[in-house]
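Ticket #4471: complex job returned nothing on first submit. Input attached below:
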Amino acid sequence: GQNIDQPTEMTATEGAIVQINCTYQTSGFNGLFWYQQHAGEAPTFLSYNVLDGLEEKGRFSSFLSRSKGYSYLLLKELQMKDSASYLCAVMDSNYQLIWGAGTKLIIKP
Amino acid sequence: DGGITQSPKYLFRKEGQNVTLSCEQNLNHDAMYWYRQDPGQGLRLIYYSQIVNDFQKGDIAEGYSVSREKKESFPLTVTSAQKNPTAFYLCASSPAGEVNEQFFGPGTRLTVL
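Support reply: We reran it on our side without changes. The output follows.
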């Protein structure tokens, strides 16, 4: 079966750095997406990785290792507005997105 | 402003009633999707459509129906056959092509009493 694993919840301090991990086992791989979702709102796109390595975009970076079935989202200089759920999704061989349950990130002052 | 709209934001229905959730996009996207989101679970695909007048079942299509008569619109009907319809429903769209980010609407929270 297809499976995406993420921690359920993480807590970090304002101004710090946090790394949210995602491991996956899917039927094929056509890239990995990270989305941010504030409570009760729509998910919004953060990043897409299809090749191994690190993609940096401002305070957010995303890393992929296809051989390990592993990705992480790195958030730097955390702000209170970063409190949200972070969703990992893998596009499988049928070009369908398989979603993880999301990681709820709590930022404390 | 281009985007996806879903209405209403909150919807209450009695058990046994069918209900239709609206989804409209003005992004000129070919593909549209309906997902269901439950606490502690990932988004699950209900139906998707890659072109007007064509749609395919997702992983949890039972108890749901859709239509795609216009490129801009992809309404979802939750029928009385859906055993556990209370959930947060998200509509999304994406441009044509196999690998594209999906853009989401604000969602409709359906509660069946």
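Chain B touches chain A through 20 residues (CB under 8 Å). Closing as resolved unless it happens again.
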